[in-house]
Amino acid sequence: MVEGKILKVSGPLVVAEGMRNANMFDVVRVGSNNLIGEIIEMHGDRASIQVYEETAGIGRGDKVVSTGAPLSVELGPGLLSNIYDGIQRPLEQIRLKFGSNLQRGIDVPALDRNRVWRFVPAVKFGDKVGPGDIYGTVQENEVILHKIMVPPKTHGTIVEMREGDFKVTDRIGKIKYEDGTIENITLIQKWPVRVARPYKEKLPPVDPMITGQRVIDALFPIAKGGTACVPGPFGSGKTVVQHQLAKWSDVDLVVYIGCGERGNEMTDVLREFPELTDPKTGRSLMERTILIANTSDMPVAAREASVYTGITIAEYFRDMGYSVAVIADSTSRWAEALREMSGRLEEMPGEEGYPAYLTSRLAQFYERAGKVVCLGADGRQGALSAIGAVSPQGGDISEPVTQATLRIVKVFWGLDASLAYRRHFPAINWLNSYSLYRDRLSGWFAGNVSKAWMDYTARCLKTLQIEADLQEIVKLVGMDALSPSDRLTLDVAQSIREDFLQQNAFLDIDSYTPLDKQCGMLEMIFTYEDRARKAIEAGADIEDICSLPVHERIARAKTVENDNYQNEFKAIKAEIAAQMDKLIAGVDAE
Amino acid sequence: MIREYRTIEEVAGPLMLVKQVEGVKYDELGEIELPNGEVRRCRVLEVNGRNVLVQLFESAAGINLADSKVRFTGHGVELPVSQNMLGRVFNGMGEAIDGGARLIPEKNLDINGTPINPAARYYPSEFIQTGVSTIDGLNTLVRGQKLPIFSGSGLPHANLAAQIARQAKVRNADDKFAVVFAAVGITFEEADFFISDFKKTGAIDRTVLFINLASDPAIERISTPRMALTAAEYLAFECDMHVLVIITDITNYAEALREVSAARKEVPGRRGYPGYLYTDLATLYERAGRKMGSEGSITMIPILTMPEDDKTHPIPDLTGYITEGQIILSREMYRKGYMPPVDVLPSLSRLKDKGIGEGKTREDHSATLNQLFAAYARGKEAKELMVVLGEAALSPIDRLYAQFADEFEARYINQGFEENRSIEETLDLGWELLSILPKSEMKRIKPEMIEKYWPKKA
Fold it and tell me: Which one of A42, A414, B141, B172 is most buried, counting C-beta atoms within 10 A?
């Protein structure tokens, strides 16, 4: 135990002397309040410490004690449905014990020490186990079977294994290491947050993460194990997109990191998710969710830690063979926390005051995503998808955080203020967004949804691109200058935008659209286009086509029940055919 | 024991370096006694060995390195609070300036407050009727929300804020209500406008005023909003009142912050504002809300003037990232004479969805709101096209949209600062305007709803 004395206090940065024997990145306790901090620089016997709590009232000569261990998270049963701050302190327990405002120096263990779990062993006396092998399981809730794993780098022989009801710190068995020492096994393991948890092998992602959001699934899909970013100016709906992903993605588990954002947004998740049902399991969404909340009024240094805390917990569940999504809102606030610490350390700044290591830190974070073969003899596979919101200043995506992020992630959902002003939500701009997974996922879509899926979605993108070009012409010379065929393209593009891409997150029926319904909607729109082109060839007037009454029915197709849409869609297609035939018949009669 | 130091080494701008001190803590409040006996206050910004860097709250004029004395009080900056603050006027540092009786404090509260545990917040969902159609109908305000007004120099944001303060009420509720008003670096005339408006309506008895005028020291502005919010927190969370906090003008606050940051030679972020401007603003704005264990709430309406009407300027930009929406005023509307001149399309209330609908406002609210936005956006586009190509170039339906946009501005937006519309009046007016368009254009409204509310034309 190294103990030093404080020399300097400047906001969240504290410098202490007498720390020569402490390790870099050790966690320290600062002052009489036992504030939690972390050593981030050493100069001789002086350590620079970033403190995760408000430092008011700390002064020269106060003591600093090193705990000798790096910043770590506790992993074990009890993580699910919980809400933690940036350094994994359980906010709900803190509220019960200390009231509704956050006091300093609070020490509450991350996992409830009194809760009892039913443990069922999967190994027995005499079994040899290695890293990632499964000791046994705890049914943590109806949705998630929590696998108690042998920690990485551990090899040994089981010398005791018990079934029964245990608290997380109780002994569930004993393991004899190769060097002969025997140690107790508990339900808990610890892992330093800044180190990625190991796996056997990384695999290329080939399955889509289905989100039920039409613009994402159809136009810019993300793979399980993939990375995506959502930049957008304020008011463009970043948070709603992130919440929708947390709600509807077909993953086993979601870790939602609120990093330097609004308190009410976390409250919203906390109050709303328990009442929503996961379409996959039929259970409450909260059962598969873990929240990390470091809101903007909470100490800035803990913001820096919160993304690591979140992704480490996600990796732990990935190691059990689950598909996990990490949703971070917003990485810009995390970058700002880096900038603030960097400024206080008087480092030479890079662009806009951000430290020079911004890009490499961001890359390290996103690179912890991926589809992997987990440790353990059974060869199970897990996936970790990472989605980060970016809040560029003034909506200007040329700023360093967005640019550094774009160099790493494979999917870019660019939110657009002008779409948001028109209340086109989700305001994902179809002209500048992209997904590098489209081709890789085409096989899955062809096999699981429809062979036509890739054609339809490609046709969507093309139609929207042509529309953008045509709009330029319309702005200069007016609608009348366009040929009937181009007028029809505009009509179809409008239908794609309004009837397909627009999706109301606050309307129950529209919030989530299954893939086959999405495919059905596209099929309907393109049936309309094909029929209409024929009608134009036959001499029908474009004005008449554009004002066919069937438009209204197509527009309302998204609000048809998800499990009983086929009949309605069939009827709409029949109506399209009937009305077009009538138009053509009218032309022939003249 | 409180020691006094005569070891002031440097005074530069708002900063002062004191040497050879013992036991001084970060963020502690200090007092400087001038040779003439005058006492000024300061705050510790950095402790470095036996030196401390302090920030003055008042001007440095008259401080003498040899004869001035500094003592540290052992605690942070505090505000004495009590229920008797209602109806009183304080300066930017929380000292009564109305010549009234001395306030007997019930307690002293640190002005920095402590963050609210997100697990202890209630999600704001109670509809506040402001009587302004563009807010109630389109950008609904709820209790516990922070909804800033983004304005520009010369726009009537003060009138709008006063109108909200005057008319705001939660329907079917009879709760204790208070206003906390913080003037941050504004002119006497602007402050006087608010005060006389509060007096005229009798609201002054339920109002606490913190006044830092343009002529007062700029650095004092750093603590003025915190003083106001500390008073608001006391009234809301300890006296169970519903408090409306109006802070004007945040731009002056941010400039004071920049002044201190520049004096410390910190690496600046955009436009010379400190890199921690976001965090600093958040520690103000996030104090709004509702929390468990208390009946009260803090609803915040900060006002800021956008330099050059530029929404991407760091102050409005960072504010927009923290607050739950924004009401933006438009010079174009103002020139047309439409009051309050709200720029509807970029304005937004993030919390509206949980505060409207059946049982709160009316079942048709959400759908008509979206339809109105979409129709107005399309109408404006049509009008732009009309400017370039003439009316003849528009399709018949676009011509209707253009007409809709005109009427929407003239009747829905333009209601004046005196008219107090109930939510039903606002919603009915919305339907009346929508009926300019054919029913088949109402793609965002359910057919049953259209059946029920579509105006029957005489």
Answer: B141
